[in-house]
Each structure stands twice: as structure tokens, then as C-alpha cells.
Batch of 3 targets.
Target 1
Amino acid sequence: MSHRHFILFKPYGYLSQFKYELKRPKKLLGELYDFPPGTMAVGRLDEDSEGLLLLTTDGKLSDHICSSGMEKEYYLQVDGRITQQAIDGLQQGVEIGFEGIRYQTLPCQARLLDAVPNFPPRAKKIRDERHGPTSWVSVTVNEGKFRQVRKMLSAVGFPVLRLVRVRIGTITLEMLDGASVKEVSNLIE
């Protein structure tokens, strides 16, 4: 059997899944494209997050990517002007809560972005400058606890207003070439 692989820009408000059993209706990935049967998301982005999502029909490949410690880079719009002290804290690792247990994140890469990234408009408006300044930061991690990157920014005093994943390993949003979904031959080299 020949497996198929996709990259896509997951919009705000969609779940990273194809089925949802609870009563409240949700937007699902199958509404974005006619994916083949057996397609699964490789990892997740929560409903409030956007950006690069990998999909495949190959479960072994999905498990390999999720367990390999592959770098994931996020661009985050945060409330306020982020400080160098906060960026230094992120780089060293911070303490967050995970399933009721305190957890020390691994050191990561973090930096202030010089310019506002050019992303598609978000379905739900983010507050505007009348409510105070915002800034954009890049954070690259090799782990992925539940809502970890959001919790990391909150731990250093800068709540996240918008989170967009831009890279997983060597795969980047730029590879979409403006499309919302693209089939690719390989997900990893």
C-alpha cells in the first residue's frame, strides 16, 4: 500500500482530528480538504492555535515523528512588549503545570521577531492596539506537553494572543506556496 502525506495550514477554530464524538459541534480537518480514508494528524494543534500541521495515512511514520523529539517552531503574538529577561527565561526552561504536576521545560530557542509575520487573517479578531502593545516572539521546542508553549509564555508573564506553528523539523509553512493544503511525497528526509 502506498501511503499519502499532506501539509496544511490549520486555521483557528478547527480541531486537529477527523471525528468528534461529543455533542457540541466542532470544525474538523475533513472540512478543509477531501483527505483519503485513514488520514491522521501527526501531532496536534489545539482549537485556538493555527499553522503547520502534518497529515499521513502511515501510522508508523506518525508515531516516529511524534516520538523523535523533532524541533517545532512557533511564532507567538503576546500581550505586552516581551523583555529580554523573559526570553532568557524561556531559553533556560521554565516551570509549568501539566496534569496537576509541576514540570520543568527543557531549554529551548527563543527570540524576539523584528517584524509582524504575514499570516492569513484570523477568523476571530484579536484585540487591537487600543488595549496595549503586543509583540511577536519565536519559540522552538523539542518536546510537546499539552498547551506547553502557551504555558511557557504565561510563566514568564506574557500571555499568548495568537499562536502559529511555522516549522516541524525541516518542513515549513513556506512549502505550502500559498496553498492551504498540499500533498507531498515525504514528511521526513
Target 2
Amino acid sequence: MKNIIQNINKAFDHRIRLGIMSVLMVNESADFSTLKELLGVTDGNLASHTKALEIEKYISVEKQFIGKKPNTSYRATKEGRLEFQNHINALEKLIQKR
């Protein structure tokens, strides 16, 4: 029997990473505050999970100042979009497998 979980990407195993990518798949970008509010997570949790996705090159990070206030925004990379879609497809196949 073929390994039905082989295409499930470990980088998206955690619910926060899954949430980050879900938000970024339907939005061009999202800033730190928006992600924090939408996902209901702490600063530290969000920072560690965005860093993990950045290391995998699944998201890109842009830091800038708006006025005198720092702003960090995130965007799914082309590779990140492809890998996340493959992950979702693998989950759908797993669910359909009975």
C-alpha cells in the first residue's frame, strides 16, 4: 500500500503555521498585528512560527517603519504557495481514503 501521508508537509503540522499560511494564501500579505489577532496567539508564539516558515523559504518578511512605528509584514512565497497547496491536496486525499 502506498504511503498515504508522504506528501503531508511537516512544516505545516502545527496549527499556528497552518493558520499563518491559510491567511497568506488568501491575502497578498498580512502584518504581525493582523496575524496575531486573527490567530489569537502571543507575540512569541507568532514570532517563532513565522521564523520557522521563513527558514523554509515558505514566507518572506518585510520590515519597515510606518511613521516612527516599526511594521513587519509577511507574504507567502511562490514556493510556499506550491508546498502549501500540495499539503492541502495530500490532506484531502487522506480524508477521502477510507
Target 3
Amino acid sequence: MASEANGAATEAKVEPSLNILAQYIKDLSFENPGAPMSLRPREKAPAISINVNVNANPIAENDFDIVLTLNAKATDGDDVLFNVELVYGGVFRIQGIPQEHVLPLLFIECPRLLFPYARQIISDATRNGGFPPLMVDPIDFAQMFQQRMAEEQAKTAVKS
């Protein structure tokens, strides 16, 4: 009888896993307000600013919706050459992971898996808009997560 109980406990233990259930474009916007004049050759490269954000939302007990937002804007002086915004998401299932490791997994590993696809979408959008493809540099999601946690701790310390 004791061996049956131990066997049931062993079966209940779930192997650690991270699965991507779906990936999707939630929002994609490309603006080229000065076309066709914005497409002319230039003497100097435009200034390009890129902003990145990651959000995680639980949608079931072990399922999470991770949303990676990328904004890229190219300017030449006061003129906006292009502005592209992508909200790219993925549904991830996390099982058998200790609770203290779930947040880093959601905010570091999940966006790291989504990033190459989002990068390709941004590249294609800028190329299809008439510009050279914008190849977004790799992003250090671990550093972003540490910075976010430090900001949250600072907010908590100020409230106390």
C-alpha cells in the first residue's frame, strides 16, 4: 500500500517545462509620413530610437501571455522618416518550475524566445516601407528585468 502511495506522488511531480503554445502579432503599425520625399538618399544616417517593453499576464494556472512591445522611430532633424510599432505576443505554459524562478522565466527567457520573430517583423516592415531593413540589436532581457525589479523595490521603499 505504501509503495502505491509513493508511486502516485512520483507521478504527480511534473517535470520542469516551458512550452510555447502560440505566437501572434497583436498590433503592427508602420508610418512613413514624408513619403516619397523621406525615401531620397541622405548624406548622413538618420537618428534611430528604439524602445522595448515586456509585460506578462496570467491567463490560466500555468499559462501566461507574454507581450513584447518594440517601437522604432527614425528622424532626420525634426522630420520623422518612419515610425514602426509592434506588439508581439506569445502564450507560454510553465510547469514544474519553483515559484521563485517563474518571474525571471517570464521576463527574461520568454521574451528572448519571442525576440527573433519580432526583430524579423520590424526588419520586413521597414524594408517594405522603402527603407533599408532595420536590424534591431540583441536585447539583454536579464538586464531589463534586473532594472525593473530595482525600480519596483525603490517604489516599495518610498511607500514604506
